[in-house]
Amino acid sequence: MNSPSPLLRLADGVHLWSPTPSAGWGLANCGLIVSPDGTAAWIDSPYDRRMAQDFLERSRSLLPEGGRIGRVIVTHANGDHLWGAEVVRGADIVATREALGHIEYEPAPKQLHAMVRGSDPETPLGWYLQSHFGRFDWADTEVVEPTTTFTGELDLRIGQVPVQLTALPAAHTTGDLIAYLPQQKVAFTGDVIFASSPDDPGDHAVHWAGPLDSVIAACERVLDTGAQTIVPGHGPVLDREGVRGHIGYLEHIRDRARELHTAGVPALEAARKLIAENAFPLPGLPERMVITVGTEYRHLNGGEDRPDIVAMIAVVAQVAWDLRQGCPLHSPPRCRTRRITFTARGGKSPPTVLVFGVPMHLFS
Ligand SMILES: [Zn+2]
């Protein structure tokens, strides 16, 4: 289980809530803005209610008597940045117009909860889901939909604190935004940046919408704001040099993926190869390379910017299963202990799960 997490002051009236542990699927950074007049807002919210309540209680300790979180700025619509907003019901939920559309596309919280709890831990997918998502509880979670959406730019004021929002072209997801506080020179980037350092190891970048050129352009827009303190979606806070280093890594992955695509190497094999190359070296959850490389390949093949999220997780699980068994580069027959075929439609359409070709109606 996660232990309670303290708030870290980044600048006057700007605080960071990071979950403990700070690395792993769904363990995202959140921001708290408190204006001198007591007006307050969140930037993102934790993945489940227990973590969100922890963030709320710690936020209240910095608010005046009777103060409330009046607004939640959502950097993108993945659940680990949005679902905790239900604990501040009544707040204005601000997101891009495309993020609103993305909500319908993801598995709903109760579907994901059932999928994690109902999966067989003897299979790669079940083992992976329970290892990485079993710590969360979405049994009663309802998604709070955005109440304010925008395209392009949106200037807000949280009391006396200006916040500049920039909607991005599809990068980590469709509907990402950057939130920049010009007075404090702090940027909240959401998941266009995943940070990691030797002192505070993070996880491998996972990008669903891409292509990587768009993610790199998003990172450069973060630098263009003039930010000196950069809060990534996951992992430790960065300075500008840290962002440049991350851009260099993304460029490396992009260039290698293109080389392998040109050489006719299939996407999954390319991802396994990049994991085995272990450039930089790799941070945690290296199996997420499958999604990031898969996204790049989808664009190189002229495909759409929306993958089948659950199907991708099933492949990621298989690769992690193989890595655990010491088979990073290929999936030789001895690694193929179980095979799962997963087809899914997210949001309000229940996914269909096929295990050994047999449908499992986990979501009815
Ligand atoms: Zn995230």
From TrEMBL:
Signal peptide: none annotated. Residues 27-234 form the Metallo-beta-lactamase domain. Pfam families: Lactamase_B. This is Metallo-beta-lactamase. The lineage of its organism: Bacteria, Bacillati, Actinomycetota, Actinomycetes, Kitasatosporales.
